[in-house]
Amino acid sequence: MILTVTPNPALDLTWRVDRLTPGATHRADAGAARSGGKGINVARVAHAQGASVLALTTAGGRTGVAFVADLGASGVPHRLVQVAAPTRQTVALVDEALGDTTIVNERGENPTDAEWAALFGEVVDALPSARVLVISGSLPPGAPGSFVPLLIGTAADAGVPVIVDTSGPALLRAADAGASVLKPNAAELVEATGIADPVEGARALLARGAGLVLLSRGAEGMLAVTAETVTHARLDAPLAGNPTGAGDAAVAACAALYADGVRDTETVLRRATAWSAAAVTMPLAGEISDDWSALEQRLVVTSTPREERP
Amino acid sequence: MILTVTPNPALDLTWRVDRLTPGATHRADAGAARSGGKGINVARVAHAQGASVLALTTAGGRTGVAFVADLGASGVPHRLVQVAAPTRQTVALVDEALGDTTIVNERGENPTDAEWAALFGEVVDALPSARVLVISGSLPPGAPGSFVPLLIGTAADAGVPVIVDTSGPALLRAADAGASVLKPNAAELVEATGIADPVEGARALLARGAGLVLLSRGAEGMLAVTAETVTHARLDAPLAGNPTGAGDAAVAACAALYADGVRDTETVLRRATAWSAAAVTMPLAGEISDDWSALEQRLVVTSTPREERP
User: Fold this and answer.
1) Which domain holds residue B122?
2) Min Cα separation A20/chain B (Å)
3) pTM higher than 0.80, yes or no?
């Protein structure tokens, strides 16, 4: 079973407008409200691809009620810790003319210490059945810095590998704690490590203790960086679509393989890149198209031993 | 008592961002959710200024629950018809750097015939206690064209004057039905009448049957157009601020005077312009600043008999 933890879930609101003009008034049909947060999206993708999953997160307030209702309707197995603070919202305004999306993400409110402990307890309860633990997304401002390292340490004690997709100081802490896989994008890597070259930044995370860094590069595909090699997978031609949720699909692919005991770096990289590409062609985060194996066939993969880099 | 009817209420959501950039991702603190719709804003302003009010509208779905909770907390007396369709939402993204606001208004879902009848019934029940009826805001797509004229006719039978602030065909129907006061802005007048000159458009509404047209012109103040004269009120110097809700404050001023039996056109125009200006200095629609009487002192009022217009 793939166990996902979402420390900062969100109710994702989406409205479509003809053409978004700052300062103007627009008319729109009723917006959509969907349970989100990166760990929820990972669970959705893995569940839709037939993997056994359990999504753990929090919910609170009126927005939490809508979050719970949508998550229940999704069919994704989940367990929720009730919290006092309302579940945060995100706003996406989709410009139908240009096809781009303007996003406003609420930062989220920090659960109480007791609520964090309850979420931690849910992970501890579920770990014996887990083949892999995924910790995905941001943490609310003020979140205890120990939360991610404690989860990683507890999973390691239970022999469960941990995949982490987060940013900022939590990304460094995850590396220090020995996360099996980290999946930053280039901007997150540069911001967290202060190193301008993302591949060197990925190596810094490996030196801190991470086992593998999957570095997502948008239309340029994905890099798998280990102490020995840098492997690059990309499509033979770029895809048009919506990149929101592409990273979550990559994490879902990695988690599905890890849950099956697959650790081969190139296999993981290819599947992660293919699912990521298959997410770009879908309108909503948390979904991938069924033609992902055709996309996997189209990948161009190159590997460079460390010594050969200039 | 001022009776307001809001045929298309909304839960108004507001988020503040540093600088709104289309296509970009932004961070924001938790958004605000407030019960809105023009008639609700009118009732808020009049209630805050000490007038006796009753706000009638509909509520439905999860958004309706939030709408009801906020309206209850506001202290504005109200009666609600429960409807099956969820209360629509509006989205306002406030650019803190530029100070301007990008708005997305859901069109709203049309209540059933039985729900329209229930709302109509609430008006009939309340009319004996009403000194003035206000019908404010848009109608959802598909709304019965007879709703506004029937309300105006019923109020007229009860000897209650009616102020209407709407747009499109409903504005023409309100004129045909003999509304006491209409309050379009210039764009709404041009769009509804097809006449390029707003003052001529206002005269067309008078010819159809309206008693008085208050034509709001933003920073240029307001015009009161009757069959005999055009009276113009404006501040001696422009005000900086948020124009959202300025028209609702003007309607509230007009309603408060009509409820007190005041019909003098210049008195109504001055009060409406002053409350409108006092709304511009407030961050939220449905509120006016306490210094409105100082603003009223600063108005420059000019009157032109019809014959003198070139």
Assistant:
1) 2-24+31-308
2) 7
3) yes
